[in-house]
Amino acid sequence: MTRPGTDTATPSHAGRLQGSVALVTGASRGIGRAIAEAFAAQGAKLCLVATDAVRLSEVAAGLSGSPEPALCLPADVTDRAACFDVLAQARARFGHVDVLVNNAGVYLGKSFLEHTPQEFQRLLDVNLFGVIHLTQAALPGMLARGYGRIVNIASTAGKWGSRNQSGYNVSKHAVVGLTRCLALETATHGVTVNAICPGIIGTDMADSLKKGQAALMGVEPDAAMAATLAARVPVGRVLEPGEVAELAVHLASRASGGMTGQSILVDGGMLLV
User: Fold this and answer.
1) Amino acid 231: pLDDT
2) How many CB atoms are located within 10 Å of the residue 6 CB?
3) I need a surface site. Which of 7, 48, 145, 169 has the fewest CB within 10 A?
């Protein structure tokens, strides 16, 4: 009999997360919501985390495929105690957590000299320390069971330099670096740690990027996005959250046991590295 933690690939794509318990942060919108929907469709039991309790409940109500109703856990990932409490509640409900998706994040676009220390700190608190808190809360249980999947949602900003988003880039570079280090520490314990690096995805964050670029370029937001796509994205379009979610499903599954320490681009060809 195969336990949920074995690295044996399933024979079909149906129910790839059957028997797994997954915790997804930033699950009330955008990429996090798409991941929650994809995980539910593949049979995972879900713990959903976000600051907006109302939107989180709406997401949970719309899920299909999961064998049990999702556990909604309103929390701020910058609050370390709250992160450990989230894991405690997840274990109380489901017994353990197999998969952690660190998706919660914030974006800010402005020149380096315009960034305040408080803005740098906010980006680091959410984008980096949120990952650290949740991972330190979840990892001991994974190591004890000899199985786990950690999927960090980083960004193309974690793989290259770009103008007018130094604070955001710093935070995402840190997530990519942390992913690599944790992968080395956990590789012999049945735990994999990987990052997904999305490019321009159709979410609220992309809207913020569009508006910020428009202000810097002195043009309308749609014109700024069109220029950005033409100059930087070979496929010539904004990607959908579901395209990121599909990769997250694979990285969260048993079939991905041979992959760890990777930072994988889902960016329409923006970066060929």
Assistant:
1) 82
2) 13
3) 7
Residue 237 contacts by C-beta under 8 Å, 6 or more apart in sequence?
229, 268
**CA angle, 116 as apex, 175 and 50 as ends, to 5°?**
45
Active site residue: 29, 37, 168, 203, which one?
Answer: 168
- Give per-residue pLDDT as tens, 235-255: 999 999 999 999 999 999 999
Residue 256 to residue 254: CA distance in whole angstroms: 5
Residue-wise pLDDT for 162-190, tens only, equals: 889 999 999 999 999 999 999 999 999 99
The CATH code of the domain at 21-199+239-266 is: 3.40.50.720
Residue-wise pLDDT for 29-73, tens only, equals: 999 999 999 999 999 999 999 999 999 999 999 999 999 999 999
- Phi and psi at 195, nearest 5°, equal -125, 145
pTM: 0.91
d(CA 131, CA 121): 14
**CA–CA separation, 60 and 36 (whole Å):** 8
- The region, left, alpha or beta by phi > 0 then psi within -120 to 50, assigned to residue 65 is left
3-class SS at 97? coil
Give the orientation angle of helix 53-61 with respect to helix 30-41, to 10 degrees. Answer: 30
Q: Does 168 qualify as catalytic in the annotation? A: yes
Strands 263-266 and 191-198: parallel
